[in-house]
């Protein structure tokens, strides 16, 4: 048996090697490495795919978040609400811009920010909310958007893990992750659902004025070369990466389906194991399974992880420490016990291998091994 990986990028590449290699070679032949025509082409394709009116490519998903907050004119000292249970990048840019992260706990079943706690933490100093569509499904956007509107707050959707996921509103309309708030951000880090061969990111908006601002900030604050209107950053998507992403975007729906199939098999296999909880779905969202994340009860998570590792099965803990308890964020004076759900999830969650090239026999082996762990009484 070939070794099982969390994400198998090699096999994925092999299947589309001719197309990818051709796209890369074309960029090399043209030597348009920076802002070559493939960047605009990919942006247009992604706009078509997501339904976002404007797509501005940038260097990575972290930059995308930072540029979004700069474009919305968030000022030093103002407050931005962000889940305590997320990847650090979301909070990092808030702190870097001199803003104040106001953490919020998450729903214990869906892992998305808990909308029931949202209104009580909004202050006159709050300017924005950053829902993180964690693991591949949308946060409860209808409630988030309506609360944001009521309080005059901006919404930036961190869509790094959920590209292609769809949310349905009660009026029957639906929209893709990243296209519902004022701005959406995403990442093309290789292991993300739409991954390139290095770093990459993009920013979505439906607002033409904001789009122009975002574009300007991402390009050193200039619209015209050497005329700087605002302080910006240098954040570009490489032409090579854009050419790769154009190829992979065509397969994104197929990739999502492959992930959903793996998830469905896990769900079925683990549904009746009392010590584990399979991932619950947000009612109005589809799930593209960036991660398949179980909750393990009775403090058995670490034992399970070791057990699987000994059998050659990798697993990951996203995330072992909630951001409010990270050393780097002590200045914001949060303490243990402030966000009990996030803290407990850090002890209970485990993500199993899921990717677009999962072999049935590999998944069967993973499933058998997990079941055996619980049956044998660890
Ligand atoms: C990956 C990720 C990011 C950062 O993306 P990079 O491209 O690595 O900078 C931000 N937020 C979340 C939730 C992520 O998973």
UniProtKB/TrEMBL annotation:
This is Pleiotropic regulatory protein. The keyword Transit peptide does not apply. The active site is at 192 (proton acceptor). It comes from Rhodonellum psychrophilum GCM71 = DSM 17998. InterPro entries: DegT/StrS_aminotransferase, PyrdxlP-dep_Trfase, PyrdxlP-dep_Trfase_major, PyrdxlP-dep_Trfase_small. Keywords: Pyridoxal phosphate. One of its GO terms (molecular function) is transaminase activity. CDD domains: AHBA_syn. GO terms for biological process: polysaccharide biosynthetic process. Pfam families: DegT_DnrJ_EryC1. The modification N6-(pyridoxal phosphate)lysine is found at residue 192. Belongs to the DegT/DnrJ/EryC1 family.
